[in-house]
């Protein structure tokens, strides 16, 4: 049995979709659906059962699930970089993850969890997925720190060689529509272009970057899923790994690709960045991916232009997700 926490969310539902494509249906989904529209990501997926995240935690604490678990993909978390409730992030992103990790180790269950590129902060200490350099990292927001706390805990209790942590960079693609402000710029920009014919991007407040030339490592969801599932297929590979393309691109590159996919001329307007974001903004991220390659991942990663074209033409324009 495979457990996917956050299984109705963006990356989680994509993991379930890919597992289904591999012929795997013995899956239990754990999530908090609430009043959001992310339940739609479940349509078309094949799985055995679904539990609320709090109910599942009780089951884990009591060890009463009733199934033999092979692997837990722990992708559920509060991913809002603007979340101000530090106690909530501490419980939901750190304590919850710690409980699942301890259960997995005690019961010989493969544990693969989501960390984040937000742990790298402004990048002054680089983007190398090296556990020995974790103490140098300084996240810019509480979300990033909550993820960093667990990475540090893994190091302190010496279990990095027994589990897998995935530092996702800027993932975009189908099944993210429910994420509100945390949707990718691709999804937001597509809507802006349809409505107004132009895209709004934040101005730069860093003299080293022109407006729109801030850079990110944008990775397509299908590639992020393949890189994550590599560690399900190769259970002897453990540690902390970046999941990105290894090549930073500008916001202008990204949105220009959207216009091209829609057969339109680029039309970009630069706007003021909200005050709340200015001191917590990453101007450059670029994954070092030598480690995952050395762990045996050999698939070619989709180019930004091809990824955006696939997303726009085959999903956004058709208003469909991965499984429907």
Q: Could you give a short account of the major beta sheet?
A: 7 strands, parallel
Count of β-strands: 13
Strand content bin: 15-25%
End-to-end C-alpha gap: 24 Å
Which sequence of SSEs, written as H and E, runs from N to C? EHEEHEHEHEEHEEEHEEHEHHH
Q: List segments where confidence is low: pLDDT < 50 over at least 5 consecutive residues.
A: none
Helix/strand/pairing class, anyone?
alpha/beta
Task: Strand order, main sheet: write it out.
Answer: 3-2-1-4-5-6-11
Average pLDDT confidence is: 95
Give a written overview of the molecule.
With 324 residues, this protein is α/β, with parallel strands linked by helices. The protein is built from 10 helices and 13 strands. It has helices spanning 10-21, 53-62, 86-106, 142-156, 185-196, 221-233, 251-261, 275-278, 290-294, 304-316, and strands spanning 2-5, 27-31, 49-52, 71-74, 110-116, 164-168, 170-172, 199-202, 215-216, 218-220, 239-243, 249-250, 268-271. The strands form 4 sheets. A 7-stranded parallel β-sheet has the order 3-2-1-4-5-6-11, sandwiched between helices. A two-stranded parallel sheet has the order 7-10. A two-stranded parallel ribbon has the order 8-13. Helix 1 packs across helix 6. 40% of the residues are buried. The mean pLDDT is 95.
Features:
324 residues; alpha/beta; two-stranded parallel sheet; 10 helices
Task: Summarize the entry for a quick read.
The protein is α/β, with parallel strands linked by helices and 324 residues long. The chain is 36% helix and 16% strand.
Could you give the topology of this structure?
Blueprint lengths: L1 E4 L4 H12 L5 E5 L17 E4 H10 L8 E4 L11 H21 L3 E7 L25 H15 L7 E5 L1 E3 L12 H12 L2 E4 L12 E2 L1 E3 H13 L5 E5 L5 E2 H11 L6 E4 L3 H4 L11 H5 L9 H13 L8
Parallel strand pairs: 1-2, 1-4, 2-3, 4-5, 5-6, 6-11, 7-10, 8-13
Antiparallel strand pairs: 9-12
Helix pairs in contact: 1-6, 3-4, 5-7, 7-10
């Amino acid at each position: 049995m495979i457990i996917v926490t956050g299984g109705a969310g963006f990356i989680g539902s994509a993991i379930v979709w890919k597992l289904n494509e591999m012929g795997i249906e013995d899956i239990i989904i754990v999530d908090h659906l609430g009043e959001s529209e992310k339940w739609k990501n479940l349509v078309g997926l094949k799985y055995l059962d679904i539990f609320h995240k709090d109910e599942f935690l009780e089951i884990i604490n009591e060890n009463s699930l009733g199934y033999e678990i092979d692997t837990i993909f722990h992708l559920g978390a509060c991913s809002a970089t603007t979340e101000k409730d530090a106690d909530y992030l501490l419980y939901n992103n750190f304590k919850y993850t710690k409980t699942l990790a301890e259960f997995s180790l005690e019961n010989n269950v493969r544990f693969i969890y989501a960390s984040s590129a937000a742990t790298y902060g402004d990048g002054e200490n680089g983007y190398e997925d090296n556990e020995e350099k974790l103490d140098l990292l300084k996240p810019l927001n509480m979300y990033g720190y909550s993820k960093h706390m667990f990475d540090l805990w893994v190091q302190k209790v010496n279990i990095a060689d027994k589990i897998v942590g995935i530092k996702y960079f800027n993932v975009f693609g189908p099944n993210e529509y429910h994420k509100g402000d945390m949707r990718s710029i691709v999804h937001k920009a597509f809507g802006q272009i349809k409505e107004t014919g132009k895209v709004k991007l934040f101005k730069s407040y860093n003299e080293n970057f022109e407006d729109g030339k801030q850079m990110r490592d944008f990775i397509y969801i299908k590639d992020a899923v393949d890189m994550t599932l590599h560690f399900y297929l190769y259970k002897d590979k453990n540690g902390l790994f970046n999941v990105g393309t290894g090549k930073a691109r500008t916001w202008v590159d990204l949105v220009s690709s959207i216009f091209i996919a829609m057969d339109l001329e680029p039309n970009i307007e630069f706007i003021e960045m909200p005050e709340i974001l200015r001191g917590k903004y990453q101007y450059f991220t670029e994954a070092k991916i030598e480690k995952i390659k050395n762990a045996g991942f050999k698939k070619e990663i989709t180019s930004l232009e091809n990824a955006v074209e696939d997303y726009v033409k085959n999903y956004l324009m058709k208003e469909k997700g991965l499984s429907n």
